[in-house]
Structure formats: C-alpha cells, structure tokens
Automatic annotation (TrEMBL):
Recorded superkingdom: Bacteria
Protein name as annotated: Polysaccharide lyase
UniProt-listed Gene3D superfamilies: 2.60.120.200
Signal peptide: 1-29
Ranges in coiled-coil conformation: none
High-level lineage: Bacteria, Pseudomonadati, Pseudomonadota, Gammaproteobacteria, Alteromonadales
Keyword terms of this UniProt record: Signal
Record organism: Aliiglaciecola litoralis
C-alpha cells in the first residue's frame, strides 16, 4: 500500500567541515570558550572572537563584526511552548512537537521514504557523494528520492533484511569510493525535530554493524540554523577509536583516557550508548559506553553557546573518507532526555 506522507518543507540543511571561524584544533593552552553575560568569547590561538546576538566579532584593539553566524531570533520565531511541550512551527504546515524521546527499529520500512515524514521519526537524509557533491545537489536529490522521482545515485540508505540486531530489518548506509575530488562522503538519516539546550541531558543508544570502511563520525547533534552546523558529535579516528568533539571554535575533544584503547570492531554488532549533559561551561559532561564498557567520562563544555539549541540529529555515516567504500548497518536507535 502506498502511503502518501506529508513532507516538512524548508528545513535547514547543515554543512560539514569547519565552523566559520577557527581551524583545526591546536594544543595551545590559551584556547578557551567562555560565556560572559550574553556573549560567548572564544580564544583560539592568537585570535579572540566574540559572538553576540548571532554576530561574530573580532576582538583586538577594536571590536569588529566579521560575520553573521545565525539569526538571533530563530529560536524565538521557530519554537513555541504549550504546557511544557515544545513545538516547532513549520510554515504552511502547522506545529509539530519536538522529539526528545523516540525509538527506531526500522522493521516496518520498505524504503527510506517510509522513515522520513511528519508522522515518523525522521525529517530528512543527507546523501552527499560523487553524484551529489554540493548542498544544492544533495538537497535536490533528496527531494527527488522522497517524491519517488529518482533512485539513489551512488551513496545509499536502505532498510535491509541482510542484517538485523532485532526484528526483521536494520538500516544499511553506504558511501561509495570516488577519486573525483569529493571533500566528504555522507549517508545519514536526519531529524530536525530535535530540541536539546542548556541544562538538558541528551541520551543516545544504538546498535551499529560496521561491515566495511572507516566512518569518521556516526552521531551528529547540531544547530542546523547556524552556519556550518556547529554542535557536538561522536567521531572515529583512522583506527576507529571513538571520541566526542565539540564542533565549534578550536574543537575541544572528549577522549578515552591514555590507558584505554578501544576501537569500533568491524564485522559484528556493537552497542553504543552516549550521554551528554549540555552546559556552556566545564560543568558539561560526556560519557560513552561501547558494549557496556565505559570508554569516555569527561567533564567539559558541551554546548557551543549558552543560548544554542541543538535542533538537528544525524545518525549513520555522517562523514566518511571519499576514497573508500563504507558500509554501516544500524538498528534499535533510541533517543531520550531522561536516561537510557
Ligand atoms: Ca530492527
């Protein structure tokens, strides 16, 4: 039976790569991100920047605006609260309750189209690859796939009976090797009905089966209304060792202790559980467990800016190298604001 789904228009798309300012992380002891009143001050290397009301200022002998990072009225204009429930206002559509608690087992989906829409768990997908290398091209491809006007070009997201952690299906995500100068490969399932802010607990639990390749990040929680989508993400290094990174400014990282050296194994189901307490100071905290072994437990800043809302969650191959195939299955995804 063909079910016509209501698609959510005009949700923002985030980009990969670095934040608008700041480059790769440095080990300089002076690096810091500090909330000062209604400003966020960033010291990165020899630069001092401040963000206030969405504007980034370079601070030196004078204070010079250098760019607009986000619309300071976005949150106020996009969300409404009723009886402590937060709703996202979707123009020409209505209000949709944000999703801070949900479970996804992929069992009833026949195609990715069954997973995306106003009445299911996800609102979008990001399939960036050789055939859709730019934001405009992957947004266009997404629309065509969701309308049934196109199949995937190279990278794919498919419910699959090949592997499952539970039930009958999991979700297979695939990115294809290319030598065509692509910056990053992506095949992720996304929701922009997420809403996590200062003082909130973000809990994530999911089963992953890495069949092939080296995904660079698996879970990406970010502010999609800001340029380049700053936020916090679960990353894997070249040897598939996990870390969590605040994707902002000098990119502070949450890592395994020196004596701990775990990698995500290939060829088996692995359970990842993540807790992030969101705070714009060192009172934030990140904990990561793999198969119930706690790998990371570190305090630190977990929120980019004091008033930031992480309104987008991407899961799957949220980044992978362009020069190799990556095949990642996932199943039994759970998100919660109160514990998992
Ligand atoms: Ca399943």
């Amino acid at each position: 039976m063909l079910i016509k789904r209501r698609f959510i228009p005009n949700l923002l798309i985030s980009l990969f790569s670095v934040v608008a300012f700041g480059s790769a992380s440095t080990a300089w002891a002076t690096n810091s991100i500090t909330t000062i009143g209604n400003k966020t001050r960033i010291v990165a290397g020899n630069r001092t920047l401040e963000v206030e009301q969405g504007i980034v200022y370079e601070v030196g002998e004078s204070r010079t605006p250098i760019e607009q990072l986000y619309d300071p009225n976005f949150v106020q204009n996009t969300y409404t609260k009723n009886a402590n429930i937060i709703y996202r206002i979707i123009p020409n559509h209505g209000n949709l309750q944000v999703k801070r608690n949900f479970t996804e087992n992929f069992d009833s989906a026949n195609t990715v189209r069954d997973l995306i829409g106003a009445d299911v768990n996800w609102t979008a997908m990001t399939v960036q690859g050789e055939g859709s290398p730019t934001v405009a091209s992957y947004v266009d491809l997404r629309h065509k796939i969701l309308r049934g006007q196109s199949d995937f070009l190279d990278n794919r997201i498919d419910p699959s009976t090949q592997r499952k952690h539970s039930g009958t299906k999991s979700l297979r995500t695939f990115t294809k090797a290319t030598t065509n100068g692509l910056d990053v490969n992506k095949s992720s399932l996304d929701t922009e009905l997420t809403f996590f802010a200062r003082g909130d607990d973000f809990w994530f639990s999911g089963w992953f089966f890495l069949e092939q390749g080296k995904p660079a990040s698996l879970i990406d929680l970010e502010s999609a209304y800001m340029k380049e989508g700053p936020g916090i993400r679960l990353m894997l290094d070249d040897e598939l060792r996990p870390s969590v990174q605040l994707k902002f400014a000098y990119k502070p990282a949450f890592k395994m202790p020196q004596q701990t050296n775990y990698s995500l194994p290939t060829g088996k189901w692995v359970h990842l559980r993540l807790h992030i307490y969101l705070m714009d100071s060192d009172a934030g905290r990140v904990r990561l467990w793999m198969d119930n072994t706690k790998l990371i437990d570190q305090a630190g800043r977990t929120l980019t800016m004091f008033d930031a809302v992480y309104n987008s969650l991407q899961v799957g191959i949220t980044a992978a190298p362009p020069n190799m195939n990556t095949v990642l299955y996932m199943d039994d995804i759970r998100v919660s604001d109160s514990g998992l």
